[in-house]
Amino acid sequence: MTLNILFLTITITKRTKSLKEAVQDDYIEKLHDENKNQRISMRNFK
Predict the structure, then answer these.
(1) Is the pLDDT confidence value at 26 over 80?
(2) Which residues contact 25 (CB under 8 A, 6 or more apart)?
(3) How far is residue 37's CA from residue 30's CA, in Å, rounded to a whole number?
(4) What pLDDT does 11 receive?
(5) S-S: 21 plus which of 16, 17, 42, 46, CB 3.0-4.6 Å?
(6) From start to end of the chain, where are the E strands?
(7) Residue 11 vs residue 45, higher pLDDT
(8) Spatial distance between the Cα atoms of 45 and 33, rounded to a whole number of angstroms
(9) What average pLDDT does the segment 5-25 reach?
(10) What's the 3-state SS for 1-46?
(11) Is 8 exposed, middle or buried (0-12, 13-18, 19+ CB in 10 A)?
(12) Percentage of the chain surpassing pLDDT 70?
């Protein structure tokens, strides 16, 4: 009987965002919220 065991080492590091990435993420979130609010208002308009 052969028992093969594979040992893995996983290293997790915290990802840091640059200022440019953070500004871009905020802008995208703002656009998403505006789009969502517009869809809600159009649905209530009907």
Answers:
(1) yes
(2) 17
(3) 11
(4) 77
(5) 17
(6) none
(7) 11
(8) 18
(9) 83
(10) CCCCCCCCCCCCCCCCCCHHHHHHHHHHHHHHHHHHHHHHHHHHHC
(11) exposed
(12) 80
Total residues belonging to the chain: 46
Structure tokens at 33: 């919220």
What average pLDDT does the structure give for the chain?
83
* pLDDT at 13 > cutoff 90: no
Tell me phi and psi for residue 39, to 5 degrees.
-65, -40
Our CA angle for 38, 39, 45, nearest 5°, is 90
Token pair of 38, please? 């517009």
- Hey, what are 34's tokens? 């505006």
Q: What pLDDT is stored for residue 4 in this prediction?
A: 56
